[in-house]
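Exercise 7. Given the components listed, write out the predicted structure of the assembled complex. Treat all entries as one system.
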Amino acid sequence: DAGVTQSPTHLIKTRGQQVTLRCSPISGHKSVSWYQQVLGQGPQFIFQYYEKEERGRGNFPDRFSARQFPNYSSELNVNALLLGDSALYLCASSLDAGLGNQPQHFGDGTRLSIL
Amino acid sequence: AQRVTQPEKLLSVFKGAPVELKCNYSYSGSPELFWYVQYSRQRLQLLLRHISRESIKGFTADLNKGETSFHLKKPFAQEEDSAMYYCALRARQGGSQGNLIFGKGTKLSVKP
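Answer.
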């Protein structure tokens, strides 16, 4: 089993640019959640998609958006990048939407640096 | 409010010594709690969760509702236990429902 895969592994952007991060869940998992991990902090929830619909949204500005495709892979988009968006972006997949006690499994993350 | 607190940023012990990584939570209702571990250059991985009541790699964690704690314990630390440990709570309310609320993490360093 390949586990959760994320691409790219590293990305460097400048302020004001836009970025798209990608995630493929574990085979059979229908839920994808995105987290932002700033250096020295624990991961913070951004979005969850289940069966291609948004199921949850954390406290992030509208510059952040996401979607899930029919094959359950997902993209996270961030517009008008700010220096504070520099972080490790983690994707996690799960069998269910989170209320059925199924654990979340994480990918390696995408390291985003904003110059 | 739903919150997880890990009071120690760094915990340093010698090999063979007991380890306790502290985790306190704030939650009204029945919590679902997890410990995740991140070894150097590896992804975040699930270590254990309270509903399973299992011991993984010698680690155990007991949910204490009275003290709102879920401390991670191991009687004899090994050098390979050195890693970053995160306590997490499953959110049951609000926009984060179904997802994880993490503490800031504790870095465990086991010295030879």
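Discussion: The two ends of chain B are 41 Å apart (CA to CA). Residues 71 and 90 of chain B are 16 Å apart (CA to CA).
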